[in-house]
Amino acid sequence: MIAFLLKRTANAAFVMLAVALLAFVIFRFFGDPVEMMVNEQATLQDRIELRERLGLNDGFVTQYTRFVTNAVQGDFGVSYRNQQDVMVLIKERFPATFELVLVATVISLVVGIPAGVITAVYRDSRLANALQLGSIIGVSLPSFVVGILLILAFSVSLGWLPAFGRGATVDIGWWSTGLLTPSGRAALVLPAISLSTFQVTLVMRLVRAEMLETLRADYIKFARARGVPTRRVQWRHALRNCLMPVITLTGMQIGNLIAFALVTETVFQWPGMGMLFIQAVTFVDLPVMAAYLLIVSLIFVVLNTLVDITYAWVDPRLRDDSARGNG
Amino acid sequence: MTLRHLLLATAAVATFSGAAQAENVLKWGANRDIGSLDPYSFGDSFTINVLNHVYEGLVRYNKDLKIEPALAESWEILDDKITWRFKLREGVTFHNGNSFTAEDVVASLARVSHETSPLKGNLPAYVSSKVVDDLTVDITLNGTYPLLLNDLTNIHIFDAEWMTENDALMPTDVGAGTEGYATYNANGTGPFIVESRQPDAKTVFVVNADWWDEPQHNLDRIELTPVNSAATRVAALLSGEISFTNDAPVQDLPRLAAAPNVEVLEGVDLRTVMIGFPFRETLTTGEPNPFVEKPVREALYKAIDLDLIQQKVMRGKSRNAGATVAPPIPGYTEALDELPGYDPEASKALLAEAGVPEGLEFEFNCLSDGLVNEEQFCQAIASMWSRIGLSPKLDVAPRAVQSPKRTNAKTDIYTLGWATLPLLDSYSPLLQIFHSKDGNAGVFNWGGWSYPELDALIDAAGSELELEARLALQTEALQMVKDEIIMIPLHQQPMAWAVTEGVSEMPLFPDAKPRLWFARMAEGS
């Protein structure tokens, strides 16, 4: 087990190094931050000096080594645009993105699971067909379109919910939350729905497929034969056995949602990490772009590694050859 | 802190903001956020513009964009011609209560001209400054220079004591990787005080009751919220969540104008859109460069149907330009603004005479995030040039990608928009674009041209203190730029702001800078 853990961790570290290299190479060809940082009246000499001070003239290997060494210590430098410590910027934005992703995940489960059960149990009923059709729309509409449609309906026409922003927030330590204020909760509704549309359909389809499989299993038939009420059989015995893959999927998708939140955040001016990244791209704010990419990939890698380790812990067959040899 | 305490605190905050609603609150939805609270940290004119509500300069622009006294009451040029003496206004206080003195001016000028300051180019002639007495300052320049006042409109004055206390005497240096106190805090003399700031979410300004000047505005509070997405900005305006935007998207103007609660303010920007030629020996393809010949440049000029671009691409909202500066800019004359006339047949004849090969390939570099409808007018121009037998290769990408190509001569023909900011004078494009590359001069001379006669005119204007004589020199230089067709002027681009019905006055400035100390809201809205 220890050998397995070491191997997985080494793998993860290797992936992170590769991501860092990739991010770094992309940014080398991305453009020149200096042009964005000085104004129209700066002289050529000013520009050259600034480039030198930022270390943009150093060799590739020097820059990459410096970048990785600092990044490992959690030091991503200072944002060119905001003149703020990049880690502070990301720490400020992370709660916004995390709350959005959390609420979107809750919505996807609360809506997706019952919808999945209904479409599996009442196959070919009108309700099930309507849900199926809705799920196709949910999968195929890009989330920015969903976002704009929601704004049009609920902000412009009905005037119920705000079109942008996060509302009032309350600070608990360094964590700023919008969940405790009415305006914060109102502001969260549209972005969370927009972000969860894809996820809802994913959960619904997964639950439906699993349910169809489970409902054919022998123990369901026995339960029915024993006279257990149908409702109880479906919602309790069958559904419980379908939830394991749903939980795995939801865990894995959190990384995806954080990455996809970028689009939703842009539409709703949600002050999260994705918004920060988009702004950084516009201004060639290299330190922020690099830090964002690394942190998002870190979240992915950690989630994946955790899932792998949990599986290995639960199921010894998945451990590596050496473990099997010893066993 | 228990949850109950938190809820109580929240309720208190909610009541408080409820009370604030009764005041005149202008909710400003901009298309982007300011960089930081430090106007000297990032060479960005929007940040400087917004922070001008908090910080002020020695002089400022009035409603007609003429320079008037602000923190300085009067000034004179001393006998040596290079020292300017400024008499400062008495009784001005900073937001923290400190009084404004000559020390503050000297410390602020030292900060903005420090070698790590990205804004030192804004004071090109500055050498040193010294305190004469509490309310008098001498500024020494590197020669006779007529445009110091124009430069000073954009140099914000900080409190020396406050900077010393907070270790903010030097500008922040991103190269050194340190943060600065002034990035998060502001202390100026201006009409508004920064109350709070959450980057990319909201910056709140409240009125400064102790402002030295008689306020023309009646705002109590400005809430600046960046709303980057154009569609969301329009939605927020229609739903009344923002009451003002300084960037109403061109494609949504009819929709906004039709809405009962929104008023669209349209005007023509000072920014003149131009096309620049390469003057190097070869093109990027390695072929000899025909654009060094004036007849070839003329051929390309006459091949552009300006009216068609104005009507179709700019939807009738731009103004065709013959001069490289807009009419309100000093140095402009009507003679400069004459249009060449669209004549593709003449273009073909000129090209044939100059021996330009059929299907000549060259790069045409445009920005996807630059000027208004830039991608579209570039496409239109490229196809107009194709019609006279050339093969322009259109290269459209974001500014961040294109800038290095332009400055390093990795492209041929390019677009450039110039608003003459922050000087608001034709000396700005003459020095920055049309002068040969030389130290301070010709930074945007990307084509690499050099006209010694033109340089001499510009240099003469740059040390002429007599206004009429200086403008005559600049007009002559602009005429030479026009005669030589160094660049092709296309148009002044449209600009549009929008306000909701609660805003009763919002003067639109052709330099596209909102000056909310002139804005008024309807009482009781």
Describe the fold and architecture:
The complex is a heterodimer of chains A (327) and B (525). By secondary structure, chain A is mainly alpha-helical. Chain A is built from 13 helices and two strands, in the order H-H-H-H-H-H-H-E-E-H-H-H-H-H-H. Chain A has helices spanning 2-28, 33-37, 44-53, 60-72, 86-121, 126-140, 143-157, 182-215, 218-225, 230-268, 273-282, 286-314, 321-326; strands at residues 170-172, 175-177. In chain A, strands 1-2 form a two-stranded antiparallel sheet. In chain A, strand 1 and strand 2 form a beta hairpin. The longest helix of chain A has 39 residues, at 230-268. By secondary structure, chain B is an alpha+beta fold. Chain B contains 16 helices and 19 strands. In chain B, the strands form five sheets. In chain B, strands 11, 12, 13, 14, 15, 16 and 17 form a seven-stranded mixed sheet that branches. A four-stranded mixed sheet of chain B has the order 1-10-9-8, with helices on one face. A four-stranded antiparallel sheet of chain B has the order 4-5-7-6, covered by helices on one side. The two termini of chain B are 38 Å apart. At the A-B interface, helix 2, helix 3, helix 5, helix 7 and helix 10 of A face helix 1, helix 7 and helix 13 of B.
